[in-house]
Amino acid sequence: MASLILILGDQLTYNLPVLENATKTKDTILMAEVREEATYVKHHKKKIVFLFSAMRHFAKALREDNFNVSYIEYNDETNQGSLLGQVKHALAHGKFDNVKVTSPGEYRLLKSMQQWEHTLGVPVNIINDSRFLASPQEFSDWAHDRKQLRMEFFYREMRRKHGILMEDKNPIGGKWNYDSQNREPMPAGTNVPTHTQFEIDAITQDVIDLVENEFGDHFGDISPFHFAVTRNDALTVLSDFIEERLPHFGQYQDAMVEGKPWLYHSHIAFYLNCGLLSPKEAISAAESAYYAGTAPLNSVEGFIRQILGWREFVRGFYWHFMPGLKSDNYFNNDRSLPDFFWDGQTNMNCMRQCIKETQANAYAHHIQRLMVIGNFCLLTGLSPHEVQQWYLLVYADAYEWVELPNVAGMILYSDGGQLASKPYVASGSYINKMSNYCKNCGYQVSKKTGPKACPFNYLYWHFIDEQKEKLSGNPRMAMMYKTYARMKDENINAMKDSATIFLTKLSDNEEV
Ligand SMILES: Cc1cc2nc3c(=O)[nH]c(=O)nc-3n(C[C@H](O)[C@H](O)[C@H](O)COP(=O)(O)OP(=O)(O)OC[C@H]3O[C@@H](n4cnc5c(N)ncnc54)[C@H](O)[C@@H]3O)c2cc1C
Ligand code: SF4
User: pTM for this one?
Assistant: First the structure.
């Protein structure tokens, strides 16, 4: 029996049943840089360079390991432009008894693959992706009889099940969550360690030339390119993080600093999501640092919660709520994305910094995505569809299974509260507390209304006012609605007036 084994661009690891059970003498591995996947949204140029280069390096490693690999480059004459076309072409030119593929991370692609057997006329085995710590079925079993799905409870079950940071049946240190210690702004002048950087090799240079020629109209900068594109280099990123940044990760997890995009974060989502690193090894590296006494519990627990908790939770959530999650629109928002989302040209310094860093790096850290850009998207009522597309294409770690729950559930509340217990909205004072952006802004964070006032201030109260029917009954919004009820009508009206002026300018794409 000879199998055609299809490996997708986010499955770059030996730890997949399709490869573990492959017969090197008979089976062929098919990998392809197809136009359909690279362009169905116009991905950031750096993301395409990263993924095509990582794919080419992985194919080279497989060949060196005596696998029979058919690798179709973007400009190869035999490139069929789509995954199905490529599989058809391989079947027509070789002798295969079946096709094997690991279940993809996207609903659209899974649904299409489930029809392939019918189209191709050979058995197509879609095999579960074994890289996660919870399967979609396990999440659905956990979710099915619960009124509310809260990450914290899912996370505790995962800690117990996998025995991570546990002492018998109790969490180490006596608490499950140390977030109260993890909300410090960065003191001015802190010397943050640099992020790990790698030289561009000949394979990556070829891909850079290709992307410059073929994807010139896509968003973002290619240069400087410092990402890891091999497993060994991704392991170096992980070990540098554990040694140099994990000790302060928790403390400064929510901090934002102008001109410093990387801070104490791990920068490993790129590699976890395409297979160069596994979540289990990242979790155990952090856990070992705690036991070795080189990183404190608030940092280690905080980091592990992001991977064992949030990452697994959003993946389960995605498969549980698709396809509805993609079209949910609880607040019926439909404002188009303003042009400055593509070039950062705005007087709001926080938005300018976060968008420009996204453009340069295909990266922004969590609080920038959530409490600056995401906060703005919800407060201004931007269309969920357009916001989803934007987040999916601008970040090099973005795939629909992880982007969509974060966008629809976490920032836009467009799922009506299935993921988050309340909308993540804040006024300018939160951004001012956690960053130094407000110092260099065209607006004043201390002003509540009028042309010089920070837009987040009046947009926040405008949102609270507009959505009172949908939100005032939410116990977690009670404080905000109590404050709102105490506000004088003239103040509420002044906020609403300022918001209306701003939102009109936004809709007309005038400078804001
Ligand atoms: C609107 C929005 C969109 C996002 N889109 C993506 C996305 O497309 N891809 C993606 O991997 N993450 C996404 N995230 C989650 C998070 O922002 C990124 O994982 C993180 O910024 C990646 O940088 P890092 O590796 O330095 O993470 P760190 O801050 O060092 O965190 C460690 C790891 O935890 C995991 N993690 C942390 N938070 C989340 C979360 N909310 N959901 C899933 N995993 C999490 C990631 O794997 C990350 O690498 C999004 C968050 C928001 C608010
Ligand atoms: S004043 Fe407002 S708009 Fe300006 S940086 Fe601060 S929070 Fe952002």
Answer: 0.97
